[in-house]
TrEMBL record:
Belongs to the glycosyl hydrolase 42 family. The keyword Hydrolase applies. One of its GO terms (cellular component) is beta-galactosidase complex. InterPro entries: Beta_galactosidase_C, Beta_galactosidase_Trimer, Class_I_gatase-like, GH, Glyco_hydro_42, Glyco_hydro_42_N, Glyco_hydro_b. This is Beta-galactosidase. It comes from Brachybacterium phenoliresistens. Substrate binds at residues 130, 168, 335. Its EC number is 3.2.1.23. The active site is at 169 (proton donor), 327 (nucleophile). It holds the Pfam family Glyco_hydro_42M. The keyword Nucleus does not apply. Residues 416-616 form the Beta-galactosidase trimerisation domain. GO terms for molecular function: beta-galactosidase activity.
């Protein structure tokens, strides 16, 4: 994986976009999922005219088309897809063509019910929805490979073909399958990982509760059991499930590479604070182009912050390279408890926030709003209401905006701050039978991210294996399970001059979820200069205070200073006077331990203090807290400043350069109106 070095230290050597781009797509990519199989011929013809009007240049086709393309086993009906591909090619619109394998057709689940997935409690998930397959099923895989090869061979030379879209949101509905097929594949995966059953017994700590295995044949997935399943078994099952989906992806991708080596391949990931089903970082090297789907949490009045986190995380998975937003929504979705329509300007700001954070393509689910099926109340680029609607006008406006932003393509985001994100820590930290059930890994991640967002500081979200040398500030929230080498990398960053922040419930266990003995936070004791003898998690509604006046909830611990200094102590509660936040100077930098969960205001004050120690300034100073500002850096030295005003007040910024959305020159004070967006090519 590659990560760009920080702006001030950049030698420019890492600036070149190094992932392939959809063939023939010029400028930024714009479009959405296109499902013409749901519509009659006249609508299909109109679709392409409307797409041209909106400036669409890339559409994802055939994602859920298996049953339409292969209505009976071995009998293909390519007619509608041939026509669609031709019509799009004639209009100069490129296609991200799907493998059509995201949902098996009814004839397949009927003739091979053994491909159906099974839940933890043994329920077989039937057909009639979507994604009703067990990814470990050799029978399903064989059929999926056959379909993939058929579609690849059919359209290999088609001029519309720009990108392969494998399956769809792999694991979205069935991240963990507990079927017999999964059991067999899990055993094989464990055999490769541990080689001998003795090693597995040691790693899983099976001396506990009479769990010792005599052979791999005795092992099952962590199916519903009378009480807590073995934690390492659960952790390994999460690792296996991610790898199993990746193995399936690779097999389909290899067919596509064999048939069309000139066409890049991707699949739409789901990087966000809501999804821990896969270790997305481990997918990075297998994706020619990284693509993500993100849906705004519409009940969250500041949902644009979680959106930004998801975008930065996707850029992290892409190793800093530009990526594509494969799906989001023009307005309401249909699957949240209350599906709020987006406010005027919100969809444009959402889209541009992704672009500001490295997306070179903005796409939607879906092009035309369905009139039947489970998603008919989900918004689309072309709504039920037709042309005379704000949604359609928004679609056209965004198309113009993205055309104007074409020069941004390939430029990169350079951050001096990093947050370490680790999926195995996420999985393991949230297992059962822990000091508190109220700890949410993504909740902690989002709290630290929000503090940086509110301070206007750009941040990279990087894996624990990333080279941290270029960063001046590194934050590791709840990095629960670490290997020695990962802990050493954080220590080296501090030695090398960074401010390194480690938060509570970090470094507690090794990669097998075995506690590091001698006091918490095991792996980081030396770096942080502290030793905790016992956790004191707080009860529900229990709140205490730190000596700076900030309230704190959820967590406390009895921490001894062994080389560190207390930065905040507890001002009340059972640990009154004990350290809550500490700092230890080391090498050129410092290591901070945050053994408490301060309120949002307390956390922002702390992060401000640490960022100042790191010498990091906001991208633009003095903005209203709901105004987002971010810069992309092009290889030729051009910089693009995005200013997105999510607030209800006008915001004046000092800039000089060209404002690309309006095509006007800016020299000095420029007003970005409430709810509006501006992108400056700076001079
Ligand atoms: C995604 C999925 C799309 C559509 C969308 C609705 O998870 O890939 O097919 O269902 O959600 O928001």
């Amino acid at each position: 994986m590659r990560f760009p070095r920080t702006a001030p230290r950049s030698d420019g050597g890492t600036m070149t976009a190094s992932r392939p781009w959809p063939v023939g797509v010029t400028g930024l990519a714009y479009g959405g999922d296109y499902n013409p199989e749901q519509w009659p011929q006249d609508v299909r013809v109109e679709d392409v005219e409307l797409m041209r009007e909106a400036g669409v240049n890339l559409v994802s086709v055939a994602i859920f088309a298996w049953a339409t393309l292969e209505p009976r086993e071995g009998e293909y009906d390519w007619g509608w897809l041939d026509e669609t591909m031709d019509r799009l090619a004639d209009a100069g619109i490129k296609v991200a063509l799907a493998t059509a394998t995201a949902s098996p057709p009814p004839w397949l689940t009927r003739s091979h019910p053994e491909i159906l997935p099974v839940t933890e409690d043994g329920t077989v998930l039937g057909q009639g929805g979507r994604q009703s397959y067990a990814v470990s099923s050799p029978v399903f895989r064989e059929y999926a490979l056959r379909m993939t090869r058929a579609i690849a061979e059919r359209y290999a030379e088609h001029p519309a073909l720009a990108l392969w879209h494998v399956d769809n949101e792999l694991g979205c509905h069935v991240p963990h399958d507990f079927s017999d097929n999964a059991a067999e594949a899990f055993r094989a995966w464990l055999q490769r990982r541990y080689r001998s059953i003795e090693t597995l017994n040691e790693a899983w700590g099976t001396a506990f509760w009479s769990q010792r295995y005599d052979s791999f044949e005795e092992i099952l997935p962590p199916r519903a059991a009378p009480t807590y399943a073995n934690p390492t078994q659960q952790l390994d099952f999460a690792r296996f499930s991610s790898d199993e989906l990746l193995t399936h992806y690779r097999a389909l991708r290899d067919v596509l590479r064999e048939v069309t080596p000139h066409i890049p391949t991707t699949t739409n990931l789901m990087c966000s604070s809501a999804t821990k089903w896969m270790d997305y970082f481990s997918w990075s090297d297998d994706l020619d182009l990284v693509a993500n789907d993100h849906y705004l949490i519409s009940a969250d009045p500041r949902g644009h912050i979680e959106l930004a986190l998801a975008a930065d995380l996707t850029r992290g998975v892409a190793g800093g390279d530009p990526w594509v937003l494969m799906e989001h929504s023009t307005s309401a979705v249909n699957w949240q408890p209350r599906n709020r329509a987006k406010a005027p300007g919100e969809m444009l700001r959402n889209s541009l926030s992704h672009v500001a954070r490295g997306a070179d393509g903005i796409m939607f689910f879906q092009w035309r709003q369905s009139r039947a099926g489970a998603e008919k109340f989900h918004s689309a680029m072309y709504p039920h209401a037709g042309r005379d609607s704000d949604v359609w006008r928004g679609t056209v406006t965004l198309g113009r905006a993205l055309e104007a932003l074409a020069p941004v393509r390939g430029s990169r985001v350079l951050s001096r701050a990093a947050i370490v994100v680790d999926y195995p820590s996420w999985w393991a930290a949230e297992l059962d039978s822990h000091p508190t059930n109220a700890l949410s890994y993504p909740g902690e991640l989002l709290r630290w991210y929000t503090a940086l967002w509110d301070l206007g500081i750009s941040v990279d979200l990087v894996p624990v294996t990333a080279d941290l040398a270029g960063y001046d500030l590194v934050i590791a929230p709840t990095l629960y399970a670490v290997r020695d080498a990962d802990a050493a990398r954080l220590a080296a960053a501090a030695e090398g001059g960074a401010q390194v922040v480690v938060t509570f419930f970090s470094g507690i266990v090794d990669e097998n979820d075995h506690v590091r003995l001698g006091g918490y936070p095991g792996a980081f004791r030396d770096l942080l200069g502290v030793r905790t003898e016992e956790f004191h998690p707080l009860l529900e509604d229990e709140v205490h205070h730190l000596d700076d006046g900030a309230s704190a909830d959820l967590w406390s611990e009895k921490t001894h200073l062994e080389g560190a200094q207390a930065v905040r102590t507890w001002a009340d509660g059972p640990l009154h006077g004990w350290p809550a936040i500490t700092r230890r100077a080391t090498g050129e930098g410092a290591a901070w331990y945050v053994a408490a969960r301060p309120s949002a205001a307390g956390l922002e004050a702390l992060v401000g203090e640490i960022a100042a120690a790191a010498g990091i300034e906001p991208t633009v100073s003095g903005l209203h807290r709901d105004v987002e500002a971010l810069r992309r850096f092009a290889e030729d030295g051009t910089t693009y400043l995005f200013v997105l005003n999510h607030s209800d007040r006008d915001q004046v910024v000092q800039v000089s350069g060209r404002e690309l959305l309006r095509g006007t020159e800016a020299d000095g004070a420029f007003t970005v109106h409430a709810g509006a967006a501006a992108v400056f090519q700076e001079s």
